[in-house]
Amino acid sequence: MRARARRGGAASLAAALLLAGPAPAAELAADPRLRLEAARYVPADDPELEWSGWIGAGVALVRTEATAFDFLAEVETVLGEVVRPFEATQANYHLHLAVRQRLGAFEVGPYFHHVSRHAVDRPRPVSVDWNMLGLRVARAGERTLVVTEAGFATRSSTGYKGELAVALDADLGGGGHPYLRAALRYVIAEPSTDIPGLDRGDFVDVRVEAGPRWRSGSRSLALFAAYERRNDVLLTQALRLDRALFGFRVALEAREGTGARSPRAALVD
Question: Please, are residues 130 and 151 in contact by the beta-carbon 8 Å criterion?
Fold first, then answer.
């Protein structure tokens, strides 16, 4: 009797597995993303800080039905006219790894973000870089994306200890395809660091932008005007600037999920 029961239980389990069907296969190199952006600072009264450019690409290295492992690499280039009329003065490298796990209407997962900032063709007396490890929560609606990130520094030469960032991207609808993008980033920082003169403590970065945005499938083109309050603009001394930006952004977006817009596209680093 026990043997028949065991055989019956095994048969029931096998039938349940057959009815459930095969597990969804993992997809490699899914959801490619591309971002190209250029903007003019106003006022541009510092010859080191006149233009800003971003170029970057991302991909879901592995994706299943409910989970994705993202990799994003971007370069921010600041341009001025110190030596020649149009030259790069800073190159800031951003690497971002994140897991997106779908939980109902949300996507939740850890992230690791690395920033390394460099002066172009100029001496850099100390290292200027940091790593943030944290948790990302995002929700995408029909026309909106809200992203929240909270992390702590695993390594920092700038005195950064942690960050809390919130970003919103919204299609406003109506004629001209208007959109709104806003971000706020609070950074916990030590007043005393390895960089002489960088004596600021905690600070808040803010960016708000709006303009028309046209979409065609996974591609988009945006023209924007933005206000930005950004700290630590220079590499080796504390400086906060409030300024306007006028520019454009070309993007190739993912097909679905909150990865359809770069999780850090509106955050200020």
Answer: no
